[in-house]
Amino acid sequence: xxxxxxxxxxxxxxxxxxxxxxxxxxxxxxxxxxxxxxxxxxxxxxxxxxxxxxxxxxxxxxxxxxxxxxxxxxxxxxxxxxxxxxxxxxxxxxxxxxxxxxxxxxxxxxxxxxxxxxxxxxxxxxxxxxxxxxxxxxxxxxxxxxxxxxxxxxxxxxxxxxxxxxxxxxxxxxxxxxxxxxxxxxxxxx
Length: 190
Description:
Oligomer: single chain
Number of domains: 1
CATH superfamily: Pyruvate-ferredoxin oxidoreductase, PFOR, domain III
Shape: globular
């Protein structure tokens, strides 16, 4: 079983991204539980969404406190929230940033880090800093847990209008293609 936490800011689609990812994983025959977190969300405020996935039926319905995968769709969130909180040894970080992995300050317990210059891609495609579908492509490349094709099918089911659908499919594809994945070889999960 994998537990995923997505960090973003209000208005960027972190909760929508978790729903699209859940639909894509179901498309591939996985068992999924998406857990949106609602509270004081407002445009620009830190937002979090959760997802649990497995090849077997999921019986655990608790909150996710120790995600083995953390996806950060807004690079400024790391200054406002401890995105590594509860993350066990051997975890994977998927981060929207223009920095190289070598230039990041990372905890020692990470095993894999994936970086994607999602803001630049979003400005190319959407002319706005909406990075959620780009980071779904980055997630697919970093983890291998979902295919780009399944993400595209989930986008089609998400009721985007024609132009929006084409843009979001391009965003997923570019997120996948333009993500750099580095295995750090640090502590592996026991």
